[in-house]
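Data deposition worksheet. Section B asks for the primary sequence of the deposited chain exactly as it was used as input, without tags or linkers unless they were present during the calculation. Section C holds the resulting structure in token form. Section D is free text for depositor observations; keep each observation to a single sentence. Incomplete worksheets are returned to the depositor.
Section A, Depositor: J.P.
Section B:
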Amino acid sequence: MAGITIIGTGHYVPGKPVSNSALAKVMDTSDEWIRQRTGIEQRYYVAEGEGVSDLAAEASRLACADANIDPKEIDYIVFATMTPEFVFPGSGGLLGAKLGIPRVPALDIRQQCAAMPFALQVANGLVLSDQAKTVLIVGADAHAGFMPWEDWDVLSGESDRAVRPEAFEKGTRHRGLAVLFGDGAAAMVMRKGEGEKGFIGAQVHTDGRMYDRIFIPSGGFRSRPYFTPEMFEREEHIPRMQGRDLFKTAVTELSRVVTQLCEKHGVTFEDVDWFVAHQANDRINNAVRQQLKLPPEKVPSNIARFGNTSAATVGILTDELRRDGKMKEGDLVCFLALGSGLNWGAALMQL
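Section C:
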């Protein structure tokens, strides 16, 4: 039975690009330092008061236009984010209201950077079980809120005043993580494919034993209240990351899950036209590519221009490939990603 396939995509990033050199104004870093470690050259940040559903609405309208449908034809939303507007409710319902479809069910999922393989599996199940005909999958994240600096006017170039030494030191303490992230949204409109086209299968995993590889220590409901002044004093509202362990785990598990998924469905790596990987770090993706012995042209990258937009990376890259005419109907695509949780997985789809 044919599974879902992509009929439209769109993406949106807010504001003007923020270069590596701009980050050097608020922390001890440089363009060379960031490029060498991540492959990133610039990223985008939401404005104060702008949330993920705002970004997602822009991306979703573009995806609907690409699919040549009215948003009112959407009958289910799957929304992935780790940076919602509110602790609750989720952002999916806010997106539905902004698209003019306020009564459409919206499922919020929390697989962070690994969202897309999970979202594709869920959307495929909804369609094949006749619970939905047209599913909107959205990945959107706004990381500006946990950036470790306070001098946004200096970062943007609106002011050339000196940054306080204490603030500069704080930014520097967290630079290994802060330089990675950018803000953005991507949307995919999904419907059941025809013939042999569509979703082939997914293999996804979650291992909570490794939750502390990357997580935010504060803001949980083990404490009363769930945020305290002491948490901010200890800078626990900023994510913690065990970079070396995360790198090793990502390379090992992504290589394994792609291999197992392809073997399960009788697909060779030569059969696959595109390996669309989560854009966390160019070093991780290059290591996975080398371990799987994949040609560079099959593993595209756009992290240099966007940074890590978490749940949005796979969708942004897919949209760019489609709009550039590179990814075409009939192509076999493998989507792969790993994120906090830890969650990871891969999905195969014939467009």
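Section D:
The chain has a mean pLDDT of 96.
Residues 4-192 form a domain with the Peroxisomal Thiolase; Chain A, domain 1 fold (CATH 3.40.47.10).
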